[in-house]
Amino acid sequence: MKALVKEKAEPGLWLTDVPEPVVGPGDVLIKVLRTGICGTDLHIRNWDGWAQGAVRAPLVLGHEFAGEVVETGRDVTDIAAGDLVSGEGHLVCGKCRNCLAGRRHLCRSTVGLGVGRDGAFAEYVALPAANVWVHRVPVDLDVAAIFDPFGNAVHTALSFPLVGEDVLVTGAGPIGLMATAVARHAGARHVMVTDVSAERLDLARKLGASLALDVSGATVADGQRELGLREGFDIGLEMSGRPEALRDMLANMTHGGRIAMLGLPAEEFAVDWARIVTSMITIKGIYGREMFETWYAMSVLLEGGLDLTPVITGRYSHDDYEAAFADAASGRGGKVVLDWTR
After folding, report:
1. What positions constitute the catalytic site (predicted)?
2. Is 43 a catalytic residue?
3. Contact 83, 97 (CB under 8 A)
């Protein structure tokens, strides 16, 4: 089968032939229809310091996907051939304290699909049935392919109650954009989004931002005044991993404000801990999705009318992957999807 592979320990990707995955008794074989390109995939293609420490070549990339079940192992009873599915890309041990307590997203032995084992940038992918999400209601195929990052956005945005709250989203990348849509849909009063990309800020407005602020020419405090906020933001969703973004967020939170932080910093940085203490600010780290409560919430949000299609700004055939990766790396658009049926 064709697959997009990190063949060598150097920059680049290769579209090549690899063996089809073997299906074990508890596994599901899926014909891949669409895949989404993630920042993780960009790191692996570029072969930066993180990728060199996390990935062993050769490796089939990809963890965002939607596909059709074509075969199930003998022990699989609740998934059938023909089902439209997406996959939870964090494979957990099932035996640690958190797994046994139902907190699988906190497993210390998590293996990432397309990072620690062969992934979904291929014509077929095999996954344990426990990691397969069956779409029981109609869903746009491209949206189904980005359920993984959509889950990151939902996990982050719904970490704290949003009804009637004023929300600051720092970083209008694809997940920040989806979090903006979720926050608006979930009842936030104001949602202000910051970035330096005019194109992404335009997308934020389409997805319901009350104010999309270019912080290369204005400050978060300026935006706060424009919205008429007297005491600061109630909820912060930090999606950029940028030190200045978190510092500005902290400086503009109300006392007792709550921050969910998904953005992953490239290195350690200082923050004003005295402000965090004296303003009684809560900071919660977010990684991945809650299995499978977040997935349930995602499906319900879509059933309730949440429209994510504006987030998808690039659609390419899988054999045009070079152009697709260049689009995803440009920092100007939303999600980029690869079609594996053509």
Report:
1. 40, 43
2. yes
3. no
105, 288 Cβ separation under 8 angstroms: yes
Dist CA 220 CA 169 (whole Å): 11
Please check whether residue 240 lies inside any domain of the structure: yes
Q: Are both 36 and 72 inside the same structural domain?
A: yes
Query: Residue 42 belongs to a domain with what CATH number?
Result: 3.90.180.10
DSSP 130: G
Task: Kindly report, residue by residue over 286-341, the tens digit of the pLDDT.
Answer: 999 999 999 999 999 999 999 999 999 999 999 999 999 999 999 999 999 999 99
Which member of 35, 40, 156, 180 is catalytic? 40
- 27, part of any domain: yes
How far CA 33 is from CA of 2, 50, 52, 72, 158, in Å, comes to 13, 29, 29, 17, 29
The mean pLDDT value for 254-277 works out to 96
Residue 291 lies in a domain: no
Residues 113 and 208 grouped into a single domain: no
> C-alpha distances in angstroms, 229 versus 190, 238, 328?
10, 19, 35
What whole-number distance in Å separates Cα of residue 215 and Cα of residue 170?
A: 10
Binding residues: 38, 63-64, 93, 96, 99, 107, 175, 195, 200, 262-264, 286-287
Say whether both 118 and 247 belong to one domain: no
Residue range 280-294, pLDDT digits in tens: 999 999 999 999 999
Alpha-carbon span 6 to 217, nearest angstrom? 40
The mean pLDDT value for 90-115 works out to: 96
Is 185 marked active-site?
Answer: no
Find all residues with CB under 8 Å of 125, minimum gap 6, and list them: 21, 29, 30, 32, 62, 65, 67, 87, 113, 118, 119
Q: Answer yes or no: do 250 and 276 share one domain.
A: yes
337 vs 342: CA distance, rounded Å: 13
| Overall number of domains in the chain | 2
| Residue numbers of the domain that contains 214 | 153-285
**Separation in Å, CA 212 to CA 111, 157, 192, 323:** 36, 17, 6, 28
Distance CA 319, CA 342 (A): 8
Considering the domain architecture, whether residues 104 and 31 belong to the same structural domain is answered as: yes
Known binding-site positions for NAD(+): 175, 195, 200, 262-264, 286-287
